[in-house]
Amino acid sequence: MLYFEGLDGATIGKLRREYQQEMVVDDTFWRTHGKAHYATLIFLKCPRRFAVPLVIKKKDRRSWQILGPLP
Q1: What is the pLDDT of residues 7-66, one digit of tens each?
Q2: Which residue, of 36, 38, 42, 71, has the fewest CB within 10 Å?
Q3: Where are the alpha helices (DSSP H) in the chain?
Q4: How far apart are CA 7 and CA 35, in angstroms?
Q5: Cα 54 from Cα 38, distance rounded (Å)
Q6: How do the domains of the chain map onto residue ranges?
């Protein structure tokens, strides 16, 4: 996991050049987040696609959600 703070345009451009292929995001993502001050990159070893897209009805402001029981 990599954590960045105090981002500016040059640093965001560097992150884009270095990680865009792995992130698989389009130009809309970079325009939307172009003035971000913080970023966290989390690397997954064996990601898998779901057969059906997940639909989660969130009722709070958390940016994360547990999808199954904890081990």
Answers
A1: 999 999 999 999 988 888 889 989 999 899 999 999 888 888 878 887 888 788 887 777
A2: 71
A3: 9-23, 27-32
A4: 8
A5: 26
A6: 2-41
Q: What is the pTM of this model?
A: 0.63
Neighbours of 15 (CB within 10 A): 19
Determine the Cα–Cα distance for residues 63 and 61; give it in Å rounded to an integer: 6
Question: Residue 58 has which token pair?
Answer: 């969130």
Query: What is residue 64's predicted lDDT score, i.e. its pLDDT?
Result: 77
Q: What angle do CA 52, 62, 32 make, to 5 degrees?
A: 75
| Token pair belonging to 13 | 């451009």
Distance CA 51, CA 29 (A): 24
* Tokens encoding 6: 């105090």
Among residues 49, 39, 48, the alpha carbon closest in space to that of 11 is found at 39
| Residue recorded with tokens 């792995």 | 22
